[in-house]
Amino acid sequence: MNVVNKVTELLNIKYPVIQGGMVWVSGWRLASAVSECGGLGLIGAGSMKADLLREHIQKCKEVTEKPFGVNIPLLRGDVEDLINVTIEEGVKVVFSSAGHPGKYIENFKNAGITVVHVVSSVKFGLKAESVGCDAVVGEGVEAGGHNGLDELTTFALTPQLADNLKIPVIAAGGISDGRGILAALALGAQGVQIGTLFAATEESSAHPNYKQKIVEAADTDTTLVLRKAGMARMIKNKFSEEVIAAEKAGADEATLREMKGQKREKLGIFDGDTEQGMMEAGQGAGLIRNILPVKTIFDNLISQYNSAKANI
Q1: Which of 135, 182, 185 is nearest to 158 (CA)?
Q2: What domain range is 83 assigned to?
Q3: pLDDT, tens only, 6-60
Q4: How many helices (H) and strands (E) does the chain have?
Q5: Beta strands 93-97; 68-73: pairing state
Q6: Model-level pTM?
């Protein structure tokens, strides 16, 4: 996989592979392992308070000299604390999501930080570009976790972003092997962001029960829930059935938010409650068959990419 392009140069990485900054999954162990393999590891600040984020950044710096970044959901109530810690600790790459980066772009740029924003449509991609983001992640509805309500797929979204934006596009959603990387690049992306595959690695901080559910999942074992209250894709379980039943019965946003509560993602991903927790995962879970170390994952991705390219 000899790919040198705007994304590898922008992020100073060997391979155009970025690990998703997933809540309760993406701690310093996972991020550093991905970076050591030549990709870009991300620490997921979405499930951390400022002090814990600082600890993870410092531990990551202790074990790798390679570039890594922080994923910051901008709708967090304490987002300014998370941003301040990220700047104070000298992190040079931020992936932002769930909000408008324009409010914070000046702070990031003054600190010499490369900013990549997650978008779900061309409209939001153009907005991110207009406020000074250096690249965007175009996330299709196949992805695990929270998705855009327009439900654009990765295959449809990626080339439209590439055609309309001047800044580089990173494709995300449903990419779980080297064939997916090659396909994304063929569609005009200059990199990929992979979540679920890395969530099921040995270095992931997720609960073993959650990892096992990813391994067991088939093509139709994820579903979209909470369309009125922060739509998300998760592995089907008792909780998802209850939510879907409530949605069909006409539940309003307040009712759905009450059902979700404050710790539903932690319950499923970190605590391992496979029935009542939200086990966020993408449709690419059907391609994942083993819980492996990150190094093996990278070796597989490179081999699969090269084989797919040779077979075209």
Answers
A1: 185
A2: 6-205+285-307
A3: 999 999 999 999 999 999 999 999 999 999 999 999 999 999 999 999 999 999 9
A4: 14, 11
A5: parallel
A6: 0.96
